[in-house]
Amino acid sequence: MDWVIYVAEATTKNLEIGLKKGIWGHKKIFSTVNTDKIKKGDTLFFVHHLTLMKDEDGKSVPGFPRVGPEHYNGAIATLIKAEVTTDFYVDDVPVWPDDVYPNRYHFKVLEKYQNIPFGEEFFSREFVDAVQKSTMRKGLAIEFALGADKVFSPKESTDLEIFEGAPVYRRHLVRERKPEIIRAKKAQVKLSVGKLICEACEFDFEKTYGERGEDFIECHHQNPLSDSEGQNTKLEDLALLCSNCHRIIHRSRPWITVSKLKEIIDERARAITEETAGLC
Q1: What is the total count of domains within the chain?
Q2: Containing domain of residue 18, as a range?
Q3: DSSP-assigned letters across all residues of 4-35
Q4: 241 near 229, Cβ under 8 Å?
Q5: Same domain, yes or no, for 144 and 205?
Q6: How does pLDDT run across 154-202, given as a tens digit for each residue?
Q7: What pLDDT, in 10s, does the model give residues 207-250?
Q8: Keyword Cytoplasm, does the record have it (predicted)?
Q9: Model's pTM, two decimal places?
């Protein structure tokens, strides 16, 4: 069974204590929530401190947290995946300084990620729904049925500039990650070229992986918004890259251009060809 717990910023100290001791607790258990059904071997996700994405006027969604899960977009400070190591039990021995949370279970951390984007673009709808329910129920553990391995794929998180701070993230996500312009870029290239291939190394996902790779490719923004106060993104500002080339560009600053990476690839190919010819 898989569970989600939302941990507010005000509860950060308690989370630190819980992580150190491998224990978590709840003050109350409501009859409408199955938190008391937590058992050893279950998977548990802590979602810590959601900072909402702001709109173009710098305003957050009004009414949060009492809004639908589709509005739970932004960045989370910490995502922790853990395995429950004891069944649910009740104990009033002091653990946390602010209050007694007697409804408890123990866990061990499996994975931990920090400062990552959050919302339905990055996580499954079922997971986002569970986070919204946990937020509304004061951090109770909420069950979801999708499967822990289908929640979040850190390898799919691209464009590391979004991790440079909340203000940059908000503007970056609002402008750069709009799916409409990415779809438009892919459609433009497919219409003119006939297929989607990496602009640096010419890797073709569909040719290599067949139907599973059809229309799959990553979109790179050649003018990083983290270097500006915000800007309009045009189709010519985007480049389609394979996953490897995209990550190589973003590996370290200063980032290189797509044309520079293509030069490096071509030079390496020529060198290998000449070396091979010399062995003949």
Answers
A1: 2
A2: 2-156
A3: EEEE-GGGHHHHHHHHHHTEEEES---TTS-G
A4: no
A5: no
A6: 544 433 333 333 433 433 444 445 667 788 888 899 888 899 999 999 9
A7: 999 999 988 999 888 876 555 545 567 888 899 999 999 989 88
A8: no
A9: 0.57
